[in-house]
Amino acid sequence: MNICELAALASSKFEKNNTDLKRRYLLKNIELINKVMSCTPGYCGSFGTGYPFYVLDSNLEGELPIISEQLRYNKELINESKKTGATDWVCAKCLLTRGDEMPDLKQICKPCPRIKDTIKPRKVINRLPDIDMWMVCADRYFELAQIVLSQSFAKLDMHTSDVNPVQTIYDIQEIADDLEKGNMPQKLLPLDIHIIPYSQLSKLLDEIPFVLESFKETEEAPYLPIHPVSLRKTWQYDDTAYNFVLDYMYSLTPFNFEEKILRKLNFSRKIIGSLYTEEELRELLNRVSSDSVKRRFENNSLKKSYDRRIQSWKK
Questions:
Q1: What is the pLDDT of residue 216?
Q2: Which pLDDT score is estimated for 85?
Q3: pTM higher than 0.85 for the full model?
Q4: Listed residue (143, 246, 142, 141) closest to 204, CA to CA
Q5: How many Cα atoms within 13 Å fall on the side-chain side of residue 80?
Q6: Cα angle 271-208-273, degrees, rounded to a multiple of 5
Q7: What pLDDT, on the 0 to 100 scale, is given for residue 230?
Q8: What are phi and psi of 141, to 5 degrees?
Q9: Can you give the three-state secondary structure of the chain, one letter per residue?
């Protein structure tokens, strides 16, 4: 079995486990990340995006559905790795010798001709579960927060998958095995951490009702680009912007927001909830979603979860 196949199988085993133990394990990861962030200079709150935030409610309660799109995605990786005919993943040896030169797994990997793009390191570790969290930071502490936050995570042996991709694959396998046996894993999931300045989030929340209004008028997919600083091996700005509209609609779950920014979030949701029907908001999500997200939302549990989210904005 090559390591790409191992990564896919470990990810699928993790996905197929939908026990309350897994939910509590995810909660353990989220609580620890929030605790680290809350002790960081400039902390004005945090929020989660992606999985499991688009599955669970605002109190992180609920059932964990098995998402067939994730299983399909993992199977795709297995098929791609088998097409190469390789029994070994050439990237594993390269990462051991040149990993320190690749803070984002792109500088050397992207132009490399030795292996297909579909099974390069970033494509492989994208299959693995992680926790996607954002710290809202007072502008004047933005640079200091990056230093303190990365140091704090390192002291707790919490890392992004970029630090050691091969070891991360083995860690996910161990975590999935522990959950399957009914044991709370000791190892934590990889981090996917971002810092956003308070002023930037405030501006985004002011703008989003107007951006969505243009969708109603023109039916063009609303786009609100955001370029946060993200922790890979070091802090960096990714080469592709996020569409804040997708995260806002689909999964943004706030924690301990400073009062003013929380009022802005709630006010923007109230405006959107009053201006749009549930059907329009479902169509809006569809328009800003990638094909993979659309396939995820073929799952009835995820449809219900999204409906609960947008219904709460109307209260």
A1: 77
A2: 59
A3: yes
A4: 246
A5: 20
A6: 25
A7: 95
A8: -105, 10
A9: CCHHHHHHHHHHHHHHCCCHHHHHHHHHHHHHHHHHHHCCCCEEEEEEECCCCCCCCCCCCCCCCCCHHHHHHHHHHHHHHHHCCCCCCHHHHHHHHHHHHCCCCCCCCCCCCCCCHHHCHHHHHCCCCCEEEEEEECHHHHHHHHHHHHHHHHHCCCCECCCCHHHHHHHHHHHHHHHHCCCCCCCCCCEEEEEEEHHHHHHHHHHHHHHHHHHHHHCCCCCCEECCEEECCCEEECCCCEEHHHHHHHCCEEECCCHHHHHHHHHHHHHHHHHCCHHHHHHHHHHHCCHHHHHHCCCHHHHHHHHHHHHHCCC
- Distance (Å, whole) CA 1 – CA 156: 32
How buried is residue 97: exposed, middle or buried, by Cβ count under 10 Å (0-12/13-18/19+)? exposed
With a cut of 50, list the residues of the chain below it in pLDDT.
none
Whether residue 239 contacts residue 229, with contact meaning beta carbons closer than 8 Å, is answered with no
Q: Are 278 and 307 in contact (CB under 8 A)?
A: yes
How far is residue 53 CA from its own chain's centroid? 9
User: How many Å apart are CA 146 and CA 260, to the nearest integer?
Assistant: 23
CB distance 129 to 10 below 8 Å:
no
> Is the separation of the CB atoms in 191 and 128 below 8 Å?
no
> Which pLDDT score, from 0 to 100, does residue 97 have?
85
Residue matched to tokens 């803070």: 103
**Whole-number CA gyration radius for the chain:** 20
Instruction: Report the distance separating Cα 240 and Cα 27, nearest Å.
Output: 29
Calculate helix-pair angle for 68-83, 3-16, nearest 10 degrees.
170
